[in-house]
Fold this protein.
Amino acid sequence: MRLPILIFISSLIMEPAFAQLGYGPEVGLGMSSMKFAPDQTFTTASGSAIFSWRAGGLIDFGLNKHIYLQAGVMIAQKGQNRDFSFYTSDTLNGDVKQTLTLYYADVPVTIIYKTGNQGSGRFFAGIGATPAYLFSGTNKISKETSILGNSYTTNQILAVTYRNPVAMFDIGLNLSAGYELPTGLFFRAYYTPSVRDIGLGTEIDKNRIWGISAGYLFGKGRNINKEADDLIDRTE
């Protein structure tokens, strides 16, 4: 029984092509929205998406010819435009318009399947998780309130602080698919819906972002002639 185990371990050690480490930058543009339900004191609510972006770096580690582990660190803008209101009576009602612009440090970790062989263009798809920490942002609020027939308007631009207006830690499901060129240049489409409610009190808030990105992988194993070189080396 020991021999098969030793052969398996040796195959992992002796195939450095699979353990080649790629690394490089990635930037993306997209849209961000949220699953949103306001505090129970409000009666109606709606939301719309805002512009989103992300930028950072990643590593690309080959586990075998087709399965790769990708992990990165990204700065990402998320948030939403939203309208919600309450109605108590004709003499007491109000409307709130809010724009949340949130800045996160994302740490996506993804298992990627790549078609074809290293050194040739190939499609890929992956699934993983994206833990995220909210470190900055703005909360722009415009309130219109009617009390006994008198209207009052207030406008505020507040800095996002610890647990105000949402919880700081988030985690999302990470889905992506794209195409990698032999040179290491790649393009991907991504979708990251949160699996954690970051709303406080009775409010519900769940981030949803989608977009497209481009990146470049440096490092060994990115050479278009790599497989041909390996074949020549094995026959010499």
Remarks:
- Residues 2-13 form the longest helix (12 residues).
- The helical segments are 2-13, 226-235.
- Confidence is low (pLDDT under 50) at residues 3-18, 231-235.
